[in-house]
């Protein structure tokens, strides 16, 4: 009886111990030197394997970071928080990086841009754009058939009630899937702090644009002249903003005759000078490009609120921290 | 001479007539899983060949030296699985060390050799057919080579299928399964080879 129970246990157990010892020896002999940081970096990543970093999945990116090939801040989905974590693991300082979000640069909704024919094919922008550049009169406009919506793995794009695609800024992870999906190349990555965008990519001549869309850029260069910061340029009949130079003063949007430049006027702030800190040095007055600050030397300066565009040029110039944005 | 002839017959029969994948339908999982590229199919085949040949040898020793002498034949399955699992672990370590790319390409299918029924199948068939040690080795190696042959043939076909115009609903696994079925029918033609 005892023998019948003990024999299997001893024989199988003995075999297991022999194999185990063999494997233990082999694992030392064939040990692979893997960098423990690779695992840590992989842990810190979002893990959606979207490929926006340009590497095959999060594992590939983690390996590339540890190998020193990829930048620490190379994950656009994780953004600053992930970059900081990876920087900590790798022992590198990460400068502040601006999060970018996708933006559909077309305002030609059903109110503004007429159709040239009724499209009844399959619900897909790529298919529709093959039929004489799509149903819209404007051949550059958003077709609103949702190819980008289906490409978005994060549910961050929707077709609004006016029939064009819009990005939910909070949900967007800057994976750039939609940028690649749009057959009209209408989606661009824009710094999240930017409050001004040219909502048109039509390269047609002004006359043709006016026929096709009420809010299209006609390339009149009024914005170019109005911009005090050299941040907006008309190229190929369409205005483009240089987001590095743009200070969100929104003057271009105010001046635009077709209102094709979008500006978030609700977020606009005006400068305010704190009386007790102001020394009357006139530095801010000289810096202001809109003549929005008045006051004499050695007297407290004030901001003319109606003239102030919120460009913050004065804030940068004030040496006494007397100007705040309200 | 007769003995050598028998060895040759065993090799031929397990390689073509009773091909493990296409006639016995064992080891279908890696057959479908790692047959996308010829190079990975060859790597998988090599790994399985190593495991099968060594498993045949060790299970033979385990069966006759331990289990039968102690009258524990009923432990056959679990003891064999133990041997195979240990061998697969060893192969995994070796491949990870020697060829990280192959290790990446094989992915989960490498540890899955443990539960590959073809490996256990060959070990049990060796015992059932009452092969001696040399025949066991020939049978194990032949079975593994047959597996590799099927895998490489399949990978070759699938590489071409990638480029051909297949109806949308049949793309991917459906056409692969149909291909596997047709290959199996083709291998039936070898049945008349050995009387």
Give keywords:
heterodimer; A: 326 residues; alpha+beta; 3-methyladenine DNA Glycosylase II, Chain A, domain 3; Alpha-Beta Plaits; 4 domains; two-stranded antiparallel sheet; two-stranded antiparallel ribbon; 12 helices; flat; B: 195 residues; mainly alpha; 8 helices; 0% strand; globular
Give an overview in words.
By secondary structure, chain A is an alpha+beta fold. Chain A is built from 12 helices and 12 strands. Chain A is 31% helix and 12% strand. Chain A has a two-stranded antiparallel ribbon. In chain A, strands 2-3 form a two-stranded antiparallel sheet. Chain A has a two-stranded antiparallel ribbon with strand order 5-8. The model of chain A has no long low-confidence stretch (mean pLDDT 86). Chain B is mainly α and 195 residues long. Chain B is built from 8 helices and no strands. The radius of gyration of chain B is 17 Å and the shape is globular. The interface between A and B is medium-sized, with 15 and 19 residues.
In short:
Chain A has 326 residues and is of the alpha+beta class. Chain A is built from twelve helices and twelve strands. The mean pLDDT of chain B is 88.
The averaged pLDDT of chain B comes out at: 88
Corresponding CATH architecture of the largest domain in chain A: 2-Layer Sandwich
Greatest contact between two chains:
A-B, 15 and 19 residues
Shape of chain B: globular
Tell me the helix content of chain A.
25-40%
β-strand percent of chain B reads: under 5%
Q: How do the strands of the widest beta sheet of chain A line up side by side?
A: 1-4
H/E topology pattern of chain B: HHHHHHHH
Assembly form of the protein = heterodimer
Spell out the helices and strands of chain A N to C.
HHHHEHHEEHEEHHEEHEEHEEHE
Rg calc of chain A: 29 Å
Specify the biggest β-sheet of chain B. none
Query: What's the rounded overall pLDDT mean of chain A?
Result: 86
The overall strand count of chain A is 12
Percent range for β-strand residues of chain A: 5-15%
| Rg calc of chain B | 17 Å
* Name of the level-1 CATH class of the largest domain in chain A: Alpha Beta
Low-confidence stretches of chain A: none
N→C terminal distance of chain A: 90 Å
Q: Work out the helix count of chain A.
A: 12
């Amino acid at each position: 009886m005892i023998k019948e129970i003990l024999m299997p246990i001893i024989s199988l157990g003995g075999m297991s111990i022999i194999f185990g010892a063999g494997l233990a020896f082999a694992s030392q002999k064939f040990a692979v030197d893997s960098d423990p940081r690779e695992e840590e970096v992989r842990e810190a990543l979002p893990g959606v394997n979207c490929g926006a970093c340009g590497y095959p999945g999060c594992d590939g990116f983690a390996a590339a970071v540890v190998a020193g090939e990829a930048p620490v801040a190379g994950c656009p989905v994780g953004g600053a928080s992930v970059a900081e974590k990876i920087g900590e693991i790798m022992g590198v300082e990460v400068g502040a990086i601006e999060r970018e979000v996708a933006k559909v640069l077309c305002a030609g909704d059903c109110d503004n841009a007429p159709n040239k024919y009724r499209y009844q094919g399959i619900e897909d922008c790529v298919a529709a754009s093959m039929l004489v550049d799509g149903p819209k009169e404007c051949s550059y406009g958003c077709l609103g058939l949702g190819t980008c919506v289906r490409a978005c793995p994060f549910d961050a794009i929707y077709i609004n009630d006016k029939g064009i695609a819009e990005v939910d800024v909070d949900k967007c992870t800057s994976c750039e899937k939609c940028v690649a999906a749009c057959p009209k190349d209408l989606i661009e990555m824009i710094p999240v702090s930017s409050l001004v965008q040219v909502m048109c990519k039509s390269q047609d001549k002004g006359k043709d644009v006016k026929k096709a869309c009420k809010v299209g850029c006609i390339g009149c260069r009024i914005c170019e002249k109005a911009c005090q910061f050299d941040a907006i340029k008309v190229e190929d009949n369409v205005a483009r903003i240089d987001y590095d130079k743009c200070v969100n003063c929104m003057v271009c949007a105010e001046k635009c005759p077709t209102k094709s430049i979008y500006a978030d006027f609700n977020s606009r702030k005006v400068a305010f000078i704190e009386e007790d800190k102001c020394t009357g040095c006139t530095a801010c007055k000289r810096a202001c490009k809109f003549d929005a600050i008045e006051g004499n030397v050695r007297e407290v300066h004030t901001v003319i609120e109606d003239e102030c565009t919120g460009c913050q040029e004065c804030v940068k110039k004030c040496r006494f921290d007397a100007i705040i944005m309200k | 001479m007769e003995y050598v002839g028998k060895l040759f017959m065993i090799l031929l029969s397990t390689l073509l007539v009773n091909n493990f994948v296409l006639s016995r339908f064992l080891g279908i999982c890696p057959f479908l899983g790692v047959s996308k590229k010829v190079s990975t199919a060859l790597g998988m085949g090599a790994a399985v060949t190593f495991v099968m040949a060594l498993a045949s040898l060790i299970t033979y020793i385990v069966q006759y030296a331990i289990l039968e002498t102690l009258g524990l034949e009923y432990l056959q399955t679990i003891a064999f699985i133990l041997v195979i699992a240990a061998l697969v672990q060893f192969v995994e370590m070796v491949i990870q060390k020697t060829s990280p790319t192959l290790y990446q390409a094989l992915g989960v299918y490498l540890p899955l050799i443990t539960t590959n029924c073809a490996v256990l199948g060959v070990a049990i068939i060796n015992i059932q057919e009452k092969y001696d040690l040399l025949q066991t080795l020939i049978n194990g190696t032949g079975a593994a080579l047959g597996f590799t042959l099927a895998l490489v043939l399949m990978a070759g076909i699938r590489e071409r299928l990638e480029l051909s115009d297949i109806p949308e609903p049949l793309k991917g696994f459906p056409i692969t399964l149909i291909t596997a079925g047709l290959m199996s029918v083709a291998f039936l033609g070898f049945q008349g080879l050995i009387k």
